[in-house]
């Protein structure tokens, strides 16, 4: 579109002091601590921006344009005076990784207007926090422009130098967002490669002074289309790109194009018009068809339809020298709307069983296993004995629990989750579970749920169901985004929590709709059933990619660990590759407010380490990352009331390391450690449980074997 503005621009160290290069005065904004700088200016072709951390350029001379069906918003713009303000995000999260949030920011509101044509007005809002920045477009109400169809949002990210990039490359826009992550230099990424967000970047170092990024008299055009980023004269800097507040808009990917990353939006399904509040009849069961990147681009597919006033999601950059701070950050929830649920007394995070993963195992008993009361009773009793808050009604043997004339779990034309299969009394199951102190939740296919949404939610509430997994969504176009928001809103009206599977990344919406307890959108241990097992390296890679976006749902709790040589795919009694302690630690590593306990009860009860799972909380008051190295290992500590829970996981290479307990208040504490045993290379289920007295000045030393881990609880010491 206005990509000619990409070329021939000076590196920002040269451009921004020379204001006449923009035609108008540039706007500059700093983070509250002064370390992050955002610089904005105009060329004749489009707005451009750059981002610096301390003296290091991270994003340089990057374009901001919007391609509407009728014309491009970018050339020939007038800049009205920006408005600056300082602000404070201060709120509580009833469910989250930090219960109390106090984040300062500086904001610039930048009004822009076309000089010609319809004189359309848009406003760019930029916020800088100490751990990153975000910006988005506002579409104010205006007489000459009442609605739009967006073909492309060309938000550019021209990265400085050649940082290492970690991303999941996807084949098209219609996927479950369950891909492995690749780590490679930016220069090695092929053009037109679709990358799922978040995308993580590691800069090796930078110049001592901004002007040192270029030699005298040399422009970025002299060296090709990429700015030069000098090698390290100060510590590494990390950055991650994602989005926040995805509401009534298309999901964002990143794509390499002409030497820079640019935003790429998911197109609306072929032949279906997006509507602001889609009704149950808006989607048919056969519309989740793959849409290739090339096909969408060639057809000039519509990405977003909207009526003004409107706004885009926030484009978010986590930035800093310590990547663990990204996991502590509240940046994504900061950028979302306040909680929309006034009465939250019914909403409770907690662990849940999920017997599909273990193969629907029941013991040899006098009852016939199946979709019946007795099979569900067996799992409800297990949950009640072991402090697991929820039991999930799924079905049995590949057949759903509700009326369905489709094949296996796939919905047919007469699927109806408000009607259980004959002989299954859902009200009796819910009443029995309630008598045991266990909540009941269900699994549903979204295409079975959506046509019957209102009556199904009314029926669920009448039965006493507490929530559900909604599965196989596999899209993130504007229509699907609106469908998921509608499901959350209507579920809250009926006191139901939601767990989305086969779904796109979270974007901080848990602040607005805390009944979304978790979502999948990541390759996880369900693949251990299908000869595509998750490795310890896969777990490490998720920490600094998908986990940065928020709640990350895994099929957790596999208790049959084997070495790689002994692994075989088992649909029932699946095997896992990481050690028992690694599997325990994942309950703390992952942010999820509905962690699953997926193995069969016989594997758990009486087994070493199960006590950790029984007592680990499902929501947190504080999150700290004492130590983490992307691609190697991670240690995450989370506090619930006065108790700390720590998870440490390792990749495929052994490491000896240590971390300090300086996040603890002064005092004495009892630490209980679950550590891999000495013979772990032969018996990865073997662990040693030990206790010690610790203080905040102490360190804990870890000897992490390949695929190993450590799980720790720390509680105030009592005589």
Quick overview:
The protein is of the alpha+beta class and 719 residues long.
Textual characterization of the structure:
The protein is of the alpha+beta class and about 725 residues long. Among the domains are: about 5-270 and about 290-335, Beta-galactosidase, Chain A, domain 5, CATH 2.70.98.10; about 525-550 and about 560-590 and about 620-719, Aldolase class I (TIM Barrel), CATH 3.20.20. It is built from 13 helices and 39 strands. The strands form seven sheets. The protein has a 20-stranded antiparallel sheet that branches. The longest helix is centred in the last third of the chain and has 16 residues, at about 480-495. The termini are far apart.
Secondary-structure topology with pairs:
Blueprint: H1 12-15, E1 27-30, E2 36-42, E3 47-53, E4 56-68, E5 72-73, E6 77-79, E7 83-92, E8 100-114, E9 121-129, E10 132-139, E11 147-157, E12 164-170, E13 182-185, E14 194-203, E15 237-244, E16 252-257, E17 260-265, H2 293-298, E18 304-307, E19 310-311, E20 314-320, H3 324-328, H4 331-334, E21 352-353, H5 373-385, E22 390-393, E23 395-396, E24 399-400, E25 402-403, E26 416-420, H6 426-435, E27 439-445, H7 446-449, H8 453-463, E28 467-471, H9 478-493, E29 497-500, E30 516-519, H10 536-543, H11 580-589, E31 596-597, H12 601-604, H13 610-615, E32 622-629, E33 633-640, E34 643-650, E35 655-660, E36 668-676, E37 687-695, E38 699-704, E39 709-716
Parallel strand pairs: 21-31, 22-27, 27-28, 28-29, 29-30
Antiparallel strand pairs: 1-2, 2-3, 3-4, 4-5, 4-11, 6-8, 7-8, 8-9, 9-10, 10-19, 10-20, 11-17, 11-18, 12-13, 12-14, 14-15, 14-16, 15-20, 16-17, 23-24, 25-26, 32-33, 33-34, 34-39, 35-38, 36-37, 36-39
């Amino acid at each position: 579109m206005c990509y000619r503005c990409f070329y021939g621009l000076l590196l920002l160290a040269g451009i921004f002091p020379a204001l006449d290069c923009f035609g108008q005065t540039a706007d500059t904004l700093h983070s509250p601590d002064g370390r992050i700088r955002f610089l904005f200016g105009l060329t004749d072709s489009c707005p451009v921006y750059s981002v610096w951390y301390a003296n290091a350029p991270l994003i340089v001379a990057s374009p901001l344009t919007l391609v509407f069906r009728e014309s491009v918003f970018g050339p020939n713009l007038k800049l009205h005076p920006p408005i600056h303000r300082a602000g404070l995000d201060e709120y509580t999260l009833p469910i989250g990784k930090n219960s109390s949030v106090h984040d300062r920011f500086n904001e610039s509101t930048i009004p822009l207007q076309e000089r010609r044509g319809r004189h359309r007005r848009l406003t760019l809002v930029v916020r800088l926090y100490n751990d990153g920045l975000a910006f988005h477009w506002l579409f104010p109400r205006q007489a000459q422009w009442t609605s739009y169809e967006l073909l492309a949002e060309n938000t550019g990210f021209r990265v400085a130098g050649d940082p290492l990039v970690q991303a999941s490359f996807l084949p098209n826009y219609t996927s479950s967002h369950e891909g492995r992550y690749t780590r490679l230099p930016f220069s090695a990424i092929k053009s037109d490669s679709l990358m799922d967000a978040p995308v993580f970047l590691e800069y090796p170092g930078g110049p001592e002074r901004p002007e040192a990024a270029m030699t005298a008299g040399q422009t970025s055009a002299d060296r090709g289309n990429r700015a030069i980023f000098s090698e390290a004269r100060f510590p590494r800097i990390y950055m991650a790109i994602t989005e926040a507040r995805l509401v009534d808009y298309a999901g964002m990917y990143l794509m390499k194009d002409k030497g820079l990353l640019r935003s790429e939006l998911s197109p609306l399904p072929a032949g279906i018009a997006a509507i602001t509040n889609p009704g149950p009849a808006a989607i048919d069961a056969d519309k989740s068809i793959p849409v290739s990147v090339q096909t969408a681009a060639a057809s000039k597919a519509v990405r977003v339809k909207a009526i003004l006033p409107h706004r885009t999601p926030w484009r978010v950059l986590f930035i800093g020298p310590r990547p663990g701070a990204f996991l502590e950050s509240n940046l994504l929830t900061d950028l979302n709307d306040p909680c929309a649920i006034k009465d939250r007394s019914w909403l409770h995070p907690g662990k849940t069983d999920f017997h599909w993963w273990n193969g629907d195992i029941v013991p040899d008993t006098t009852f016939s296993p199946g979709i019946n009361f007795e099979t569900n009773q067996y799992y409800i009793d297990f949950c009640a004995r072991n402090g697991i808050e929820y039991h999930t009604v799924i079905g049995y043997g590949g057949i759903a629990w509700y009326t369905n004339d489709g094949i296996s779990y796939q919905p047919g034309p007469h699927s109806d989750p408000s009607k259980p299969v004959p002989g299954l009394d859902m009200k009796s199951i819910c009443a029995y579970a309630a008598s045991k102190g266990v909540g009941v939740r269900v699994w549903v296919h979204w295409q079975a749920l959506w046509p019957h949404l209102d009556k199904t939610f009314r029926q669920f509430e009448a039965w006493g169901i507490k929530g559900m997994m909604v599965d196989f969504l596999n899209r993130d176009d504007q229509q699907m985004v609106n469908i998921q928001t509608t499901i959350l809103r209507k579920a809250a009206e009926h006191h139901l929590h939601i767990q989305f599977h086969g779904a796109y990344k979270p974007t901080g919406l848990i602040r607005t709709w805390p009944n979304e307890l978790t979502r999948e959108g990541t390759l996880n241990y369900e693949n251990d059933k299908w000869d595509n097992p998750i490795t310890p390296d896969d777990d490490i890679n998720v920490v600094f990619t998908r986990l940065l976006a928020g709640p990350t749902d895994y099929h957790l709790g596999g208790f049959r660990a084997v070495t790689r040589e002994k692994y075989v795919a088992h649909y029932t009694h699946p095997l896992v590759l990481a050690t028992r302690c690694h599997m325990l630690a994942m309950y703390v590593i992952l942010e999820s407010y509905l962690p699953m306990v997926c193995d069969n009860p016989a594997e758990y009860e009486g087994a070493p380490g199960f006590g950790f799972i029984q007592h680990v909380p499902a929501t947190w008051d504080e999150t700290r990352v004492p130590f983490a190295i992307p691609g190697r290992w991670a240690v995450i500590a989370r506090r619930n009331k006065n108790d700390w829970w720590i998870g440490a996981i390792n990749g495929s290479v052994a490491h000896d390391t240590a971390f300090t307990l300086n996040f603890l208040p002064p005092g004495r504490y009892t630490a209980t450690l679950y550590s891999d045993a000495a013979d772990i290379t032969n018996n990865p289920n073997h662990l040693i449980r030990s206790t010690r007295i610790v203080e905040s000045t102490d360190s804990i030393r870890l000897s992490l074997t390949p695929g190993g881990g450590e799980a720790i609880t720390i509680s105030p010491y009592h005589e």
